[in-house]
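Long-time lurker, first post.

We've been arguing in lab meeting about whether calcium ion would sit comfortably in this protein at all. Half the group thinks yes, half thinks no, and nobody has a model to point at. So I'm putting the question to the forum: if I give you the sequence and the SMILES, can you give me back a predicted structure of the complex? Inputs are below. Any interpretation is welcome too.
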Amino acid sequence: MRRLEEKRNVLIDTDADFDDYMAMLYLLKHPDINVQGITVSGTGAVHLTPGTANVSNMLTLLGNAKSLKIPVASGAKAPMIYSNTYPGADREAADQHYEAPFPSTNPNPTLDDALLFLREYIINCESPVTVLCIGGGSNWGRLFALANTDEVLHLALGKNVERIVMMGGNLLPCYVTPGAEGNLQPTMQPDPYYTNTVAEWNIFVDPVGAQEIFAGNVPITLVALNATSQVPLTPEFVAELAQINNPVAKFLCQVLESQTIKPGIGNYLDFWDPLAACVLVDPTLVSTEAFKIRIELELDEEDDKSGMLILDDVDGHSIDVALDASADEVYQEYLDVIAL
Ligand SMILES: [Ca+2]
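Top reply:
Settle the argument with this. Predicted structure of the protein with calcium ion, as tokens:
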């Protein structure tokens, strides 16, 4: 396990998908990470109200009073642009937390305004914070948009947010080798309702939200499909996780063994959000390269490329993109922490 020289404060933004649980519980168990708050977006996998309750109740898996008090705040009910949505069956499964039970209900109330929580935290924090953004750009995009007219927030974001590690996007084969195509189509089978083949879900659900984050002048590591596709979610990994005997591992196994998730293991599911969480702790698990990137914001119903990442040296923003990952090291790092 990778130890840090000093404890790191982290804010998480999530859409409470199956792999978000993997990512969040890894950071919550890591001895050198202090999760300072979790904001929930209702524009990705989960709907906002059940998602916020699920994340709050997830904290009961940690079995300590301190974790129960981590602020959980509900955020965006709608994207900043369009109404691109995940498949309905996937959203329903996320709402039901994959039928995996939480030990109990968290007695602490959730917060109803993620933007207000983030603004106050970032303005008042005494040491820098790192952000794990695994739920698309709807919450943090709005925060950066707010900072355009809120000078106090603007200065605090520049001073106090050390880096945003965001799972999202893909650099196409026309830009890098090996390139990565979008990931909408495999999830929508057998009845794809979007034609887009070039975007990744987290960017696609809110291209403007992601673009606001890119433009926010905070260092960004984008854990793109180019890297995550090299760390597949395999039956072998699930078997190793099942060897760990604690409530967190047991919960994660129940999620991964659920009807919705299990068919994708060893098939089309990758270590998306948990790779981003591992990279937040240990950046050497991936190799990154800086590119100037902007996001396609136009919607074309006949040839949709909205959400596509475009390399643009004039109008792009400098982003460190993860292109390569060491799968075996990632699995080991992940399992070591979950076993604690
Ligand atoms: Ca997610």
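For your lab meeting: Strands lie at 8-14, 33-40, 72-74, 129-134, 161-167, 220-223, 286-295, 309-311, 317-325. The chain has a mean pLDDT of 97. Whichever side wins, do check it experimentally.
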